[in-house]
Design goal:
- This protein has two domains: 4-173 and 215-241, NAD(P)-binding Rossmann-like Domain (Rossmann fold, 3-Layer(aba) Sandwich), CATH 3.40.50.720; 174-212 and 245-282 and 298-311, UDP-galactose 4-epimerase, domain 1 (Alpha-Beta Complex), CATH 3.90.25.
- 42% of the residues lie in helices and 18% in strands.
- The chain is built from eleven helices and 14 strands.
- A seven-stranded parallel β-sheet has the order 5-2-1-6-7-8-12, sandwiched between helices.
- Helix 1 links the parallel strand 1 (4-7) and strand 2 (30-34).
- Helix 2 (58-67) runs parallel beside helix 4, helix 4 packs parallel to helix 5 (142-161) and helix 6 runs parallel beside helix 8 (249-257).
- The two termini are 35 Å apart.
- The structure holds 2-amino-3-ketobutyric acid.
- 2-amino-3-ketobutyric acid binds at residues 80-81, 118-120, 143, 170, 172, 183-185.
Length: 312
């Protein structure tokens, strides 16, 4: 890992990964790429190397890789589940053609690639409790369809062209630096902002909705751990199940109440509910733990305390 490109650099994961990678490898060696202009902090841009590029534009992507002599790509640019249902054609185009472009360039320029899959790869016929690594994958969202197809494409490029592509099925990610956008699990982030600002939150899934979740520091750790693991330890080239915590919306609200007793959460399920109901409630990630030593740090109590402290 010498010269690193992060696509979707403005996003929830990309912006945090940028900070960690630039501390570790030097800011001059990291390139952030997004379809949007960079985020500004006062009059200052947070990043040194920044490219405004659409990942579906193969030539622009290739020019960026050549310009900075990139050897590692964290390909995070993607539409998430809720936006994907509103714009299915765009989701297919960005999620599939963006990934195909990155994998073609990885084959031609010997790049190592990280690409995120998701719990959205599972569907209504997948076992919902302790969902195994190898099981039915029948998602009923466009986002989920692109995750399953993407996993197969990654495995194909590994088998056929020896592309070193590694992937994790992220659960819902909770963070305070950059808000997520267009996901089903976004309620588990919004609830913190609203609890602090207004002491109330109207949640778009039911109180009982239980989903696998993870605090961002653990997600970043998992991402770097899998990328740094010796190649022979990576035995799954579709995507690894990854887990940390699993809680219902009400359990999260109750945990927040321990810090903000006046906080009130109401529940008004909308179209997100059907998506959440089609996903696992908990995940068996024993293969990631066995193969490359994955372990998580944050439980619900530790994550909630840290989120509230940082956001306040
Ligand atoms: C979403 O809700 O769409 C994402 C995901 C679970 O992949 N956070």
């Amino acid at each position: 890992m010498n010269n690193i490109l992060i696509t979707g650099g403005n996003g929830q994961i990309g912006s945090e990964l940028y900070t960690v990678l630039s501390e570790r490898y030097g800011i001059g060696n990291i390139v952030s790429l997004d379809i949007q202009p960079p985020r500004m902090f006062g009059s200052r841009r947070e990043v040194e190397h920044y490219e405004i590029v659409d990942v579906t534009d193969y030539k622009a992507l290739r020019n960026t890789i050549k310009k900075y002599q990139i050897d590692t790509v964290f390909h995070l640019a993607s539409l998430l589940s809720a936006t994907g249902e509103l714009k299915p054609d765009l989701a297919w185009n960005v999620n599939m053609n963006g990934l195909k472009n990155v994998l073609d360039l990885a084959r031609d320029y010997q790049l190592q690639v990280f690409w995120p899959s998701s719990i959205a790869a599972f569907g209504p016929h997948s076992p919902q409790i302790n969902t195994p690594q190898f099981t039915v994958l029948d998602p009923n969202t466009m986002y989920g369809v692109t995750k399953v197809a993407g996993e197969l494409l990654c495995n194909y490029y590994f088998e056929k062209y020896n592309v070193d592509v590694r992937s994790l099925r992220y659960p819902g990610l909770i963070s305070y630096k950059t808000p997520p956008g267009g996901g089903t699990t976004d309620y588990a982030v919004e609830i913190f902002y609203e609890a602090i600002k207004h002491k109330k939150y109207n949640c778009f899934v039911s109180a009982e909705t239980r989903l696998p979740m993870m605090y961002m520091p653990d997600a970043i750790k998992a991402t770097l751990d899998i990328m740094h693991a010796p190649a022979e330890q990576i035995k799954i080239r579709t995507s690894y199940n990854l887990a940390a915590i699993s809680f219902s919306a009400e359990e999260l609200a109750n945990e927040i109440k321990k810090h903000i007793p006046e906080f009130e959460c109401t529940y008004e399920p909308d179209f997100h509910q059907a998506i959440a109901d089609s996903w696992p409630k908990s995940i068996d990630d024993s293969r990631a733990r066995e193969d490359w030593g994955w372990s998580h740090e944050y439980d619900l109590a530790a994550m909630t305390a840290d989120m509230l402290e940082k956001l306040a």
